[in-house]
Design a protein that fits this description.
Mago nashi protein, 177 residues, alpha+beta, 21% helix
């Protein structure tokens, strides 16, 4: 009987222990914002916004661009949750040795499309990717890490991909015989 009471007592103590979250104070100065703003026919359209503050994330669709500067649509929440601390560690590791504070790439061959912005802040380090119809290999890795935290049934974040055809002098019509 004493053994049964001891087991019940022990299971009560174990069952009542508080689940301890990873040390979130390590991430208290971490934030990240991913957003896409449509241009041309994409003005005033609802586009993805993914915000991380410490270990919490919020994924929404928002109106991020406007011809008039007026935003009339209410944001729509897609999902929210906790980002894995290993994901934050990976993002920090990918970006901590980049000395620039702004990485800007553009593709002037496309007049419409849109602009992706990924801003990462950790302690006193700030890095922003501004990608105007363009991409960046580090930003692609960051987005892949973010996507690994989004539930499978939700639309994933993306960056512009442009596979331009290869044109050679010999392939131009004026050089055809």
């Amino acid at each position: 009987m004493k053994n049964i009471l001891f087991i019940i007592y022990l299971s009560t103590i174990i069952g009542c222990q508080k689940q301890v979250e990873p040390n979130s104070s390590k991430y208290e100065n971490f934030s990240l914002t991913y957003l896409y703003a449509g241009l041309g026919s994409g003005y005033n359209s609802m586009q993805p916004v993914f915000k991380v503050n410490e270990t919490n994330y919020l994924y929404t669709l928002e109106e991020n661009s406007s011809f008039t500067g007026e935003f009339t649509k209410e944001p729509k929440t897609i999902c929210s949750g906790k980002i894995r601390t290993s994901s934050i560690d990976s993002i920090i590791q990918l970006t901590e040795n980049i000395e620039d504070t702004l990485i800007y790439n553009n593709n002037p061959g496309i007049m419409s499309g849109g602009i992706h912005s990924v801003h990462i802040s950790n302690n006193n380090d700030n890095l922003t990717f501004k990608l105007h119809n363009a991409s960046d290999s580090i930003a692609e890795e960051v987005v892949a890490i973010l996507n690994s935290n989004i539930p499978k049934d939700k639309k994933k974040l993306w960056l512009f991909q442009f596979d331009a055809p290869t044109i050679t002098i010999d392939s131009l019509p004026c050089n055809q015989k």
